[in-house]
Each structure stands twice: as C-alpha cells, then as structure tokens.
Design brief:
Layout (H helix, E strand, L loop, with lengths): L5 H25 L15 E9 L3 H8 L15 E11 L6 E3 L10 E3 L5 H35 L2
Antiparallel strand pairs: 1-2, 3-4
Helix pairs in contact: 1-3
C-alpha cells in the first residue's frame, strides 16, 4: 500500500496529465479541417507522451544510506512510484493525406494537403483519456475516504 499522502499524489499526477491529454485531443479535433497554418502547410496532429515519476521510498533511502545501489529513476518498490508526468507533446510524423481540389487556394498541382488528424482516432483517444481521468478521480476519492476514516478512529 502507498504510505502517507502518496496515493493521492499519484492520482493527482494522473489527473493533471490526462487533463493535458484531453486538451491536446480537443485541439486536434478543432483543427482537423485546417489546411493552412501560420507555420505553413496543414495542421499536424499532436500527441502527449507520458513518463513515470519515480521517487525514493523510505526503504530505498535506507538502502542508499547503507551503501547499497538503487536504480535511479526506476521505481524499486510500490512506495517508490510517484505517478505520471507529461514528458512532451510531439507532432505526429504521419504524412498528410491529399485531396483533389483544383479550385482551392491551397492546391498544388490540383491537390490540397489535409491535416493528418483522424477524427475517429481522436474520439477513441478522448474516450480512453476520459476513462483514465475518471479512474484517477475514483482512486483519489477512495484514498480520501480511507484517510478520513482513519482520522475518525481517533475520536
């Protein structure tokens, strides 16, 4: 079991990361039809990259103080897991689809490059992010209820 307030911190980090993920997905959906951006060319889909946050548990710290090696950046026990963080937001390198539209001002040789955003994929990603967000809310609430019950034991 996670000790102290660590379980709530783990859930909070997941909430923060999934909120950014949902914002990026919403931005992708909003720009799915954008064929011209200030940078030139169509809008390029963005994706969020998550990484685990590792913290040292009291046991790991004791091992380090005793001179034993502990892998840095890797959770070595459940107490050492600190949640998730956003490593970066990256552009999707997939090619832009072409649409034949010789009348468009963005056409080159009659073809217009469209955004590489697939709305169906974005909706599935949004549903997944929403479920992950809700799971973190549920875990946070469960931890809060356990802490409140523990505080009420002393009354």
């Amino acid at each position: 079991m996670l000790t102290g307030w660590a379980s709530m911190g783990t859930s909070a980090s997941g909430l923060t990361a999934e909120r950014l993920n949902m914002d990026v997905i919403a931005n992708n959906i909003a720009n799915a039809q954008t064929t011209r951006t200030p940078q030139g060319g169509p809008y390029r889909r963005e994706m969020v990259v998550f990484t685990p946050m590792a913290t040292s548990s009291p046991f790991d710290l004791s091992l380090q103080q005793a001179g034993w090696p502990v892998a840095s950046g890797i959770p070595t026990s459940l107490n050492g897991f600190g949640g998730v963080q956003v490593a970066s937001v990256v552009a999707d390198p997939s090619p832009f689809p072409l649409r034949y539209d010789p009348g468009s001002p963005d056409a080159v040789n009659g073809y217009v490059q469209e955004s590489n955003v697939n709305v169906t994929t974005e909706l599935v990603d949004m549903a997944t992010a929403t479920q992950a967000y809700q799971a973190n809310v549920t875990a946070f609430d469960a931890a809060k209820q356990m802490y409140m019950a523990a505080l009420n034991l002393g009354k």
